[in-house]
Specification:
Length: about 90
């Protein structure tokens, strides 16, 4: 999706809508949102399992992970988030 966006200058949904029509465009967008949500759920499951393994309280770890995720998503700069994660 990233490569398509860089080459064509338009987003994933617009390309699907233009090439395959409204039904497949809507299906693709809904599918993308659903899979992203499920990926986030599995990330938090991993956080809870890791904290349980370390014997740390799960609720505070999940809250901290959620806060980091929200902050990272709200900055609007992937490069800044990438640098933060490397540190």
């Amino acid at each position: 999706v990233l490569r398509l966006g860089v080459v064509t200058g338009v987003g994933h949904a617009r390309l699907i809508f233009q090439r395959f029509g409204r039904f497949w465009g809507a299906f693709s967008v809904i599918d993308l949102f659903l899979l992203n949500a499920l990926t986030i759920v599995t990330e938090f499951i991993g956080v809870t399992l890791g904290l349980e393994y370390l014997g740390l309280p799960k609720i505070w770890g999940v809250v901290a992970a959620a806060a980091v995720t929200i902050i990272a998503a709200s900055t609007g700069s992937f490069r800044r988030f990438e640098r933060f994660m490397m540190v």
